[in-house]
Structure prediction request, 235 residues.
Amino acid sequence: MAFDPLDNAVWHALTGPRRALGEHRPRAARFAPEVSPFAAIVDEPDAAAWADLGDLVGPGGVAVLFRRPVELPATWETMTTLAGVQMVAVDVGAPGAAPGGDGALAEVVELGATDVPEMLELVAATQPGPFGTRTVEFGGYVGVRREGRLVAMAGERLRLDGHTEISAVCTDERYRGQGLAGLLVRVVVHRIRERGETAFLHAAGTNETAIRLYDSLGFETRTLIDGSVVRAPAG
Prediction:
């Protein structure tokens, strides 16, 4: 069966453009924990792939997989699964098309390593998904400040040949409804498109608000993607 790299984006990122941020075995890999919790195995895993993943996480260790569903060996345990959707940017407008136009665009600032404490604080308050002390190394993060305070942000995460994922889209609840998330997503999509790549993103299947936002911006659902926490055999 032909396997689209987007069906197993973590693996293709870790063995491609994001390789420097991970730890590798021949048929499995994982990001440094401070960067991202995600691990991955080859598109069509065999016993050697699961053995490699077990070697990475250690006996009884936990891995977070993010891919199309895969059958686990009997010796592995699924601890939890979260159903999600993968969406691809097909008709996302220019950043200036956001509410407020170029005036709102002028508020957008670059975010980097010195902003990590504020970024972690915003993530803790809004829960957009995993974000660690080194996640900013994925790059491409932008935000909006109000009265000197970071109130919204978005950035890049997985990157594989021809595609880059948008992630960490979040807005302080006191500033929602002002189009800030849409503005920042448009900015990141534009930058990805300028590199000749296609933007994609993921949302929890139960997050109807986020899915409606991305639909309205010009994303289309491509497929379902599961996030699974799995445990390796103890010995």
User: Anything to note?
Assistant: The radius of gyration is 18 Å. The chain has two domains: 5-84+225-231, 86-223. The longest helix spans residues 180-194. The chain is about 25% helix and 35% strand.
